[in-house]
Design a protein that fits this description.
The protein is of the alpha+beta class. The protein is built from 16 helices and 33 strands. The protein folds into six domains: 58 residues; 83 residues, OB fold (Dihydrolipoamide Acetyltransferase, E2P) (Beta Barrel); 84 residues, OB fold (Dihydrolipoamide Acetyltransferase, E2P) (Beta Barrel), CATH 2.40.50.700; 347 residues, no CATH class; 53 residues, no CATH class; 84 residues, OB fold (Dihydrolipoamide Acetyltransferase, E2P). Strands 13-20-19-16-15-14-21 form a seven-stranded mixed beta sheet. The chain has a five-stranded antiparallel beta sheet with strand order 5-4-3-6-7, with no helix packed on it. A five-stranded mixed beta barrel has the order 8-9-10-12-11. Helix 4 packs antiparallel against helix 16, helix 12 runs antiparallel to helix 14 and helix 13 runs antiparallel to helix 14. The protein is globular, with a radius of gyration of 28 Å.
Length: 756
């Protein structure tokens, strides 16, 4: 943006008096009509981003100068909200601003808004009539005064009918208003919707919060709660596109089905190395492979081989532009919305078993003590000997008897991009070599892991549950995924490769994209320390990494460990992409990037292109055709910001998909004659209920206090236990209880349990 700096400098000047947009060009000395148009466009962009706001009579100023904040509004179930402010011109991000429900105006969850800061008496809750009163203490809250940008003008929901009108109930329970629509007969759709259908509504302009918003049904997705309708609803809500433009597919048609002999020129041949992949049962694409080579003097060379997507996706092509727009693949339950067309993501780029594939390789020479003696880099090609699941790899690591691994079934074909051969189809020699290679790799990975944590890397792994679907798309089973040795093996070598590449690019001051996790805010760490103290955990100075590591160890063995771990994670900043090597706090690494997943992350593809330039210019390797690329720092900043936003959107879509399938799975449990008894951990206690999490499936729900019929239960003063007034029976935070399912509300997305 040519005029961005000039505009912001003018508006930030102490002498600046707010002026209307029309006067901006004259003030900045821009008279050429084409340049004036460019200035006006850039000014509108700054306004749409909330960096500049209009006040009375259309005059312009920086939001903070008028006591205003611009940011994204996020609602709570109660109707109140919180504003997450944008970063200011000086690079600082103001604290989140609470907004009362009556002050949210016509904002919807996720909108970018302008809010005015206000100071008013704090509301406290007590036993007086109405349940709340005003305190003498003051609090700062916000009031929405302008909608800068709707998160999505299209709302997904279910069509319903009142006595005299039709309306749509939004899927998102954080959107608290219904949208009035025209009768289905007046719809211009070929197949008009019927009551109970999931539909997409285009919202009209809404300016009065006391009037219901109106909209037009523009698409019918199917019957609400059917797998197809729910899936399409997630796509529309998060603007995910399953189909690729025809112009992109036309480029892909020209690619061969398999790697050609001429494509192997100027690449190192690793097809004779013992190479394998380890991935989940339902993996659709295979980015990375590991090879193990035994050298003299008890040394081992571990090769980390990454799919060379840049060999096919060239800069500036329509295929490249589409990959950039998508930013990454999105993994919904049972399916994937790929960044690249399937011919590449599941085909020519995917490191499938027993086919030649082009790769970029990072080669580590280790001593048997796990010390890195040498690192080499190469353009290469490989042939994977075996596609392993994590379960197969774990069994080969832990069980001396090969029969245990042979008994494991292959993943169902409808769930994965490639099943690979069954282990029972391998010869005894192949099986023996495979087990030896995996155990050798794990012996080294285990030492890398020990050293990483000893240096200050944080153990932030959270339990995960995988949901599998049947062939019709319904939730079929839920399986807890442990971060066992098979996962850790792959994790350590991917971390090592990412760090090695980042270190080389940073060392030679080559502009690149880095994965950055900044140090937590000091105030957040202080508040975390205060929170821990209420649970009996006394901390040292959490600005010291050593004290943070001690705290995590204490949390791990604490009775309220899960709750405290969530509090700890909330105190950390969110990792993102940047064009500067600012380090990774969680991993305790000065230089870190993402290099190992170019099939599913555009950031990695950019790093591959930059790394190709490094191989040619610094390492003197022969250049590959149209792969090397140099990017200006300013362009890398824009790409980093874009892919960070794409990542956030995909993460939200994936969470939405998981929640939908959890509710679908447990709805079947409600209808069972014989209820399953679940072990559940008590996470939090409120007056209206006990919040619990099932230990096996990690599903969150509530036990309503009203369901406890044996006594009148009261919350303790510190809020950590519920006790019976007559029986003195206690239920404490951190306690394990037995519970059965009582209710699933798929509209409100709530699950209720009863205690046994």
């Amino acid at each position: 943006m040519k005029y961005k700096k000039s505009i912001l400098e003018l508006l930030s000047s102490p002498e600046y008096v707010p002026i209307p947009a029309k006067a901006m060009s004259k003030t900045l000395g821009v008279y050429n009509r084409f340049l004036k148009k460019q200035l006006e466009d850039e000014l509108e962009q700054l306004i749409s981003r909330g960096q500049v706001v209009r006040i009375k009579k259309g005059r312009l100023c920086i939001p903070t100068d008028a006591g205003l904040l611009t940011g994204v509004i996020r609602f709570r179930q109660s109707g109140s909200a919180i504003l997450l402010p944008e970063t200011t011109a000086d690079g600082k991000r103001p604290d989140p601003l609470p907004i009362r429900s009556e002050d949210t105006g016509v904002a919807l969850h996720g909108d970018t808004v302008v809010a005015r800061k206000m100071t008013s008496p704090k509301r406290v809750y007590g036993k007086r009539r109405g349940g709340r009163r005003l305190s003498k203490e003051k609090e700062t809250t916000g009031k929405v005064i302008e909608i800068v940008r709707r998160k999505n003008p299209h709302i997904v929901g279910t069509l319903r009918k009142a006595q005299y009108y039709w309306y749509v109930v939004p899927d998102n329970p954080l959107i608290h208003i219904d949208i009035v629509v025209k009768p289905p007969k007046k719809s211009k759709l070929d197949l008009p919707p019927v009551v109970g259908d999931k539909v997409v509504v285009h919202m009209e302009v809404w300016t009065d919060r006391h009037m219901s918003p109106e909209g037009t049904v523009i698409e019918v997705l199917g019957k609400t709660f059917s797998p197809g309708a729910e899936y399409r609803g997630v796509l529309r809500k998060f603007n995910l596109e399953t189909e690729f433009p025809q112009q992109v597919l036309n480029e892909v048609i020209n690619f061969p089905e398999e790697v050609r002999h001429k494509d192997l020129k100027d690449r190192r041949d690793f097809t004779n190395q013992f190479t394998f992949t380890i991935d989940p049962d339902d993996a659709k694409d295979f980015d990375d492979a590991i090879s193990v080579e035994y050298l003299a003097e008890d040394k081992v060379r571990i090769g980390v081989h990454i799919a060379d997507v840049g060999a096919y996706v060239k800069p500036g092509t329509r295929l490249d532009n589409e990959a950039r727009n998508r930013g990454n693949s999105t993994y919904l339950v049972g399916t994937v919305i790929p960044m690249l067309p399937e011919q590449l993501s599941n085909g020519l780029c995917s490191l499938k078993e027993d086919v030649i594939r082009l790769t970029k390789s990072v080669l580590f020479t280790f001593s048997m003590e796990g010390k890195i003696r040498r690192v080499d880099y190469a353009n290469s090609f490989i042939r994977s000997r075996k596609r392993l699941t994590y379960k197969q790899a774990y069994t080969l690591i832990k069980n001396d008897k090969l029969q245990a691994a042979l008994n494991l079934p292959l993943p169902p074909k409808h769930q994965t991009g490639s099943t690979g051969r069954a282990l029972k189809d391998l010869s005894n020699k192949e099986l023996s070599n495979l087990q030896k290679a995996i155990r050798t790799a794990w012996a080294i990975a285990e030492k890398l892991r020990e050293k990483r944590f000893a240096r200050g890397s944080l153990d932030l792994d959270m339990p995960e549950v995988k949901i599998y679907v049947d062939e019709e798309g319904y939730a079929d089973r839920m399986e807890r995924v442990e971060n066992d040795e098979s996962h850790q093996l792959i994790e350590e070598f991917m971390l090592a490769a990412n760090e090695a590449v980042a270190r080389e690019l940073s060392k030679h001051t080559i502009p690149a994209i880095y994965r950055v996790h900044e140090k937590p805010d000091e105030q957040k760490l202080y508040e975390l320390s205060e929170t821990m103290l209420t649970y009996g955990l006394k901390t040292g100075d959490l600005n010291s990494k050593r004290e943070v590591v001690k705290l995590l160890a204490a949390i791990k063995s604490h009775a309220y460990g899960y709750t405290l771990r969530i509090q700890f994670l909330r105190a950390l900043r969110q990792a993102c992409y940047m064009a500067e090597p600012l380090g990774h706090y969680g991993l305790h690494k000065s230089n870190y990037t993402h290099f190992t997943s170019p099939i599913r992350r555009y950031s990695d593809l950019i790093v591959h292109r930059i790394f190709e330039n490094y191989l040619v210019k610094i390492k003197g390797q022969d250049p590959l055709p149209n792969q090397s690329a140099r990017y200006k720092h300013s362009k890398l900043i824009n790409i980093a910001q874009h892919v960070s936003l794409c990542e956030q959107n995909s993460t939200e879509a994936e969470r939405e998909s998981v929640k939908i399938k959890q509710l679908e799975f447990f709805e079947k449990e409600v209808n069972k004659a014989e209820k399953t008894v679940f072990d559940a951990a008590v996470l939090e206690i409120k007056n209206h209920g006990i919040f619990v999490e099932l230990k096996d499936s990690l599903v969150f729900g509530m036990v309503p206090t009203s369901s406890l019929k044996d006594d009148l239960y009261v919350v303790s003063q510190d809020g950590t236990e519920l006790y019976g007034r007559r029986s003195r029976k206690k239920i404490k935070v951190g306690q394990t209880v037995k519970a059965v399912l009582s209710k699933v509300d798929r509209f409100k997305r709530l699950i209720d349990f009863n205690l046994v």
